[in-house]
């Protein structure tokens, strides 16, 4: 076993329920689904988070996520799809091999994602947007 469970899956050292693969990506079912069909899309090479991924991989990853999402709509009659990615521990990342969650959703499936907060006022919001823009 290596340090990374997803590298072990890529190298066939531990099994997975494979859905699809391309030259640089693999899609397989999450072992503990939010809803059945919940699929993980990962790069075959080990990159810990979004910020380590080469942007050239983006097109291939996006195409795979679109294909998997469409297949979930047909296969498990998903009425909606959440695309998610956890980066770093405070955001819920448990496996430090970058991965995207493709989650089938249904009306009234009991999940309530994204509890939301408020800015104190519009000026605070605009100032933060400007600060962010200055850091890009
Ligand atoms: P994270 O919290 O890092 O975004 O998500 C990691 C995901 O990997 C979790 O949803 C978890 O259920 C899934 N997972 C962890 N170990 C395995 C495994 O051995 N096989 C599969 N198929 N999924 C796994
Ligand atoms: Zn890895």
TrEMBL record:
Molecular function GO labels: catalytic activity
Domain (HIT) ranges: 5-112
One GO term (biological process): nucleotide metabolic process
Residues annotated as catalytic: 99 (tele-amp-histidine intermediate)
Protein name: Histidine triad (HIT) family protein
Family matches, as InterPro entries: HINT (IPR039384), Histidine_triad_HIT (IPR001310), HIT-like (IPR011146), HIT-like_sf (IPR036265)
Pfam families in the record: HIT
Residues annotated as transmembrane: none
Motif (Histidine triad motif): 97-101
């Amino acid at each position: 076993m290596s340090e990374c469970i997803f590298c072990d899956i890529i190298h066939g050292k531990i099994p997975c329920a494979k859905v699809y693969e391309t030259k640089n990506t693999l899609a397989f079912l999450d072992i503990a689904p939010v809803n059945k069909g919940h699929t993980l899309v990962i790069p075959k090479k080990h990159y810990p988070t979004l910020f380590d991924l080469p942007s050239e991989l983006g097109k291939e990853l996006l195409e795979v996520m679109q294909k998997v999402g469409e297949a979930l709509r047909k296969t498990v009659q998903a009425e909606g799809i959440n695309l998610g990615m956890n980066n770093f521990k405070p955001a819920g990342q448990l496996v430090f091999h970058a991965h995207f969650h493709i989650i089938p959703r249904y009306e009234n499936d009991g999940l309530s994602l994204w509890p939301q907060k408020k800015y104190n006022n519009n000026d605070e919001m605009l100032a933060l947007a400007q600060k962010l823009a200055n850091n890009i």
